[in-house]
Amino acid sequence: MQFDIRRFDIYRKIPKDLTQPTNTGAAISLACISFISTLLLIELYYFITPEVASELFVDIPESGHADRIPVHIDITVLNIGCQYVGIDIQDDLGRHEVGFIDNTLKTPENNGAGCRINASFKINRVPGNFHISTHSASSQPTDGDMKHVIHELTFGDTIKGFRQIPNRKAFHPLRRFNNTNRPSHASHDYLLKIVPTIYEDLGSVRRYPYQFTFFYRVSIRSIPIVFSASLITRIIQFLKSKLLLPVRYFAQYNKLSL
To answer: Buried (b) or exposed (e) across 40-70, using 16+ Cβ within 10 A?
Structure first.
């Protein structure tokens, strides 16, 4: 008699003609398939999503901007004309520029009674300040009202197109900041803590933006101005599959005045 290995099969199948499908069995089968598919999709999502991690740096991290920090500001001074207002920059290295005009566009607003200033410049990584004031004007306006609206204030590279950066508002917390309800003839100081950031996406494209927080205060001066800031550092790196958030302190930028 011929030997048949199928005799050892302990998981013997029942012929199909002896089985009968039911509505309950179909519902359970569909529920199991849906549940397993959902689990697979969730696991796939977490597998392809980069992991966020934090690290600390002791040395000065790569900034991509040498010793200077790029600044972009877009602001409207409501009650002082463009012929009076300008940007002044100074720091502890001896830099002192009054009426900075490079990469600066002034647009009259409010029928010429106000001025919108859009400017890009660089500041050193040392204590100093920049401010918008009437210091560069040959004559002073009769009404030194520095009420203003900040449309944009950013440091470093733009983060446009980088959707995976967490907490994007930290890179432009003063965007659309309306300061028109403050007293006239006052100076407006913004104390900023600035955090350098390195962002590298999965395509090895790097950007060097800066995060910052601010503290606002009002004071009375003979010639009103608007900004003040304090510089701290931090880094974000997005290395292939990880977004690193190292933190480091290296300098104090005492005043960014406007």
So the answer is: eeeeeeeeeeeeeeeeebeeebebbbeeebb
Q: Which of 71, 91, 150 is nearest to 117 (CA)?
A: 150
Greatest C-alpha distance within the chain: 120
In a domain, residue 110? The reply is yes
Domain of residue 40 covers: 19-49
Q: Are residues 42 and 128 in the same domain?
A: no
Q: Which two tokens stand for residue 211?
A: 């995060």
**115, 41: one domain:** no
pLDDT of the chain, 258 residues: tens digit per residue: 567 787 777 877 877 777 788 888 889 999 999 999 999 999 998 888 776 555 555 545 555 556 788 889 999 988 888 888 888 888 778 887 787 778 889 998 888 888 999 999 888 877 778 888 887 776 777 777 788 889 999 888 887 766 667 778 888 888 888 877 777 777 788 888 887 777 776 677 777 888 888 888 877 665 556 654 444 433 333 333 233 333 322 333 443 434
What is the rounded CA–CA span in Å between residue 86 and residue 98?
A: 8
pTM over 0.90, yes/no: no
**Is 129 in the same domain as 81?**
yes
Give 68's DSSP letter.
Answer: E
223 in a structural domain: yes
